[in-house]
Amino acid sequence: MKLLKFGRDFKPDEKVILRDYLAIERTRLANERTLLSYIRSSLYLLLGSIGFFQLKDFPNFKYLAFLSLAFSAIFFIIGVFRFRLLKKSLKQLYYMSETNEDK
User: Fold this and answer.
1) Which residue windows are transmembrane per the record (predicted)?
2) What is the Cα–Cα distance from 85 to 20, expressed in whole angstroms?
3) Domain range for residue 96?
4) Mapped to the 3 state alphabet, what secondary structure does the chain carry?
């Protein structure tokens, strides 16, 4: 589970300056780009599994089709889970820095 955690122990000790705000925005955009990459990989695996199901002359490829279909679902679930986890972490970090700015 350590792979799924994102800097939860970081606490901002001073207000967010423009550089920090831009870094948060870059990270948010990179997070979205990574989600799209997971979705793209998932769709490619789905297309591969559909292609393997269409091969009637090779019955042994049916197992490979099921494996590809399972990995497609796993990639999609992991991508969405990691996206939401990092988005939540960034939101908490940003709000914590906003509350420190008021002090």
Assistant:
1) 35-55, 61-81
2) 20
3) 15-102
4) CHHHCCCCCCCCCCCCCHHHHHHHHHHHHHHHHHHHHHHHHHHHHHHHHHHHHHCCCCCCHHHHHHHHHHHHHHHHHHHHHHHHHHHHHHHHHHHHHHHHHHC
Total domain count, the chain: 1
Instruction: Report the distance separating Cα 30 and Cα 24, nearest Å.
Output: 10
Between CA 12 and CA 98 the distance in angstroms is 9
pTM above threshold 0.85 = no
pLDDT above 60 (res 8): no
- Is residue 9 included in any domain, yes or no? no
